[in-house]
Structures are given as structure tokens and as C-alpha cells.
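Precorrin-4 C(11)-methyltransferase structure dump, as promised
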Amino acid sequence: MTVHFIGAGPGAADLITVRGARTLEACGVCLYAGSLVPRELLDACPPGARLIDTAQLDLDTITAEMVRAHREGHDVARLHSGDPSVFSAVAEQMRRLDAAGVPYDVVPGVPAFAAAAAALKRELTVPTVGQTVVLTRVAQRATPMPEGEDLATLGRSGALLVLHLAAMYVDRVVAELLPHYGADCPAAVVAMASRPDELVLRGTLADIACQVKDAGVVRTAVILVGRTLGAEQFRDSHLYSADRERPHAPCAEPEPAPTDTP
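C-alpha cells r here:
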């Protein structure tokens, strides 16, 4: 049997992919983070499925549950918020499943930064303004950042930064980015993206920290900083330009000539 790491999306139950929902419907065991995954998604699990909230479980216990389910002949849905490819802690679970000889696959999901961009109604890459998006976080006591990935270093690029797990440290974020982006640089924070209690804060590096603290945002939020957030006057992309050479459409097959045969 197989463990399926499924991206549950950013929060709204209907933002799981069709593949993710169908996989969930076929699994007799589902492990989910109760603090992040919407309960409505669990309604898709088959009747009698074993549902395990991993919010208070450690890695050893989570792995043991997946291995046990596999040995009992069950497919396992391992629901993760957002998309498993970033800040999901699936790498350490995969490493342990490899050691236990348990097969697994991954079903991608809608990442939080995409839901935040949708809430802001913004394209994060704008022609002549910015074509690079950096997904990162800030150093914390438990998990330091690798050398060269601190905000001061990343900020030198001027790229649009999307910071996960950083709302609690918004003062530090602003202080480290101000020298590179300037106080007038557009900034935004989206908390609970796509959920009924979604909160969108728009401002600049000069005022975004005050907005975050006044709103009481400390978790389940992404911070976005970069010039593309406020871009209005920019050149149209080449993709749909009238000046772009396009291949001619193939000629339609000529209709057969009528015959005199009845």
C-alpha cells in the first residue's frame, strides 16, 4: 500500500485539487494537522476511515502510524496544508518511510503564497519591474537559516520576497529589509488566506509592522515585500504583443468537390 502526501491547499476546503480529493476518498487512514487542515476535507474520507490528528504528535509517532497502516494493508492520506514542496516537513517523513521500506507519492496543492497573491489581486512577476520571487522565512531559535540565506543577503537582490512563518517577527523583517528596499516599498500581509476569516493588510515597509501588530496577526500569515505589489506603469509582456511573430494557423482541409453520382 502507499502513503500519499497530499497538499490540502491554503485553507478553503474547495481549494484542494481534484486529484487530492479523489486520493483522499480512497484512503482508509488519514493523518492531518488539525490546527491547519479544514475539517470539511475529512468528510471526503471513506466511511470508517481512521482519522488521526497529528497536531500534538511527534515525528516518531506519526511515522509509526503510517508504517502500521501500510502493514495493515491501508492506503494512507497524509494531509499537509498548502503545498508539500515548501515548509511542510515532508522531507523528514519521506526519509523515515524510505528506511522502513514504505512507498509514497506526492499530490501537489495550492501554496499559501499563491492564495495570498489571489487575495491581493496581484501578479507577483511584472514585466520590467520584477521577474523573481523568493520564498523564505526568518531565523528562529529552534531552526536557524543556512549561511547566506538571511534577509539582509536575500534583500540585496531586490526581488519580491514572500516570507512564511514570520508574522511574529515583522519588526525584524522590516529592519533588515529597509536598507535594500526603502521605506516606500510596497508590502502586504495576508493572514488566513482563502478562509472566511481572511485578513489582508496593505502598506509599505514604513507602516506594515504597525498594521500587523494592531491587527494582532502572529501566525498563519505570509508577508510579501517588493515593487511588483504596487506596479501600475509597466510595459505589456511580449507574450500577447501584436508585434510578436506567430505561426500561421494550418490551412483547413478543402471540402471534397461535389460529384454527379447520385
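The helical segments are 18-25, 59-71, 90-100, 112-120, 151-155, 170-181, 208-215.
lmk if u need the other ones
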